[in-house]
Design a protein that fits this description.
Blueprint (H helix, E strand, L loop, with lengths): L3 H23 L6 H8 L3 H8 L2 H16 L1 H10 L6 H12 L4 H17 L4 H27 L9 H13 L1 H5 L7 H15 L4
Helix pairs in contact: 1-2, 1-3, 1-4, 4-5, 4-7, 4-8, 5-8, 6-11, 8-9
């Protein structure tokens, strides 16, 4: 038999997944507790017990959305790395992250990130959860960059945390290009990313 904690986790998961589906389909305005109650099969009282209020449901869905756009994808790349600290592996990791999926998918994911970050304004608890999630991921990425510095692949004069921030700029920065009527093409942007990678590498 499942424990009370396991049943509680499953209940939360059902609510979050239903709320996330509504969030992605119609934004926060589309999230209604009565609809989530019906579609998840979770009682109204249980939803309020687990999440406090509608805003708590929205916050949990936003955190899940952020995790899927950043932590889960980036962690998969890190877990899939072969561990070799070489220039080719460093380039491949960055380019795989920058070119994951097709152009439409990448655009949707970066705008999800923008939307989630904007949703933290005035929501202290949501902001705290996003900060904790992103900090953990950045800690791991920083360790990965530091290992490449120690291995003589990446320039040792660069702050590894700053390098991580630069990596994220290649993932999120194109959002501003999306709203530029004369924005750069995907090919031109990728060429700029590849050129930038070279500035991070130690001279051979």
């Amino acid at each position: 038999m499942s424990t009370r904690a396991e049943r509680s986790d499953r209940t939360r998961e059902r609510v979050i997944e239903v709320a996330l589906a509504h969030l992605e389909a119609g934004g926060e305005a589309s999230i209604r507790v009565d609809r989530i109650c019906t579609e998840s099969g979770v009682s109204m009282g249980s939803i309020y017990h687990h999440f406090g209020d509608r805003d708590g449901v929205i916050a949990a869905a936003q955190v899940r959305r952020f995790a899927r756009s950043t932590d889960e994808g980036m962690t998969a790349f890190l877990d899939g790395a072969d561990g070799a600290l070489d220039r080719a592996g460093f380039r491949r990791f960055i380019l795989d992250g920058a070119t994951e999926g097709d152009a439409t998918t990448r655009r949707a994911k970066r705008w999800q990130l923008v939307t989630v970050l904007a949703s933290t304004v005035g929501r202290t608890e949501l902001e705290r959860e996003i900060v904790e999630l992103q900090t953990r991921l950045n800690d791991r990425l920083t360790a990965w960059v530091s290992a490449h510095q120690a291995g003589g692949v990446v320039r040792a004069d660069l702050d590894p945390r700053a390098v991580v921030a630069m990596l994220w700029s290649w993932k999120l920065g194109p959002a501003l290009n999306d709203v530029d009527a004369n924005g750069a093409s995907e090919e031109a942007w990728l060429a700029a990313v590849e050129a930038s990678i070279e500035t991070l590498l130690r001279s051979e």
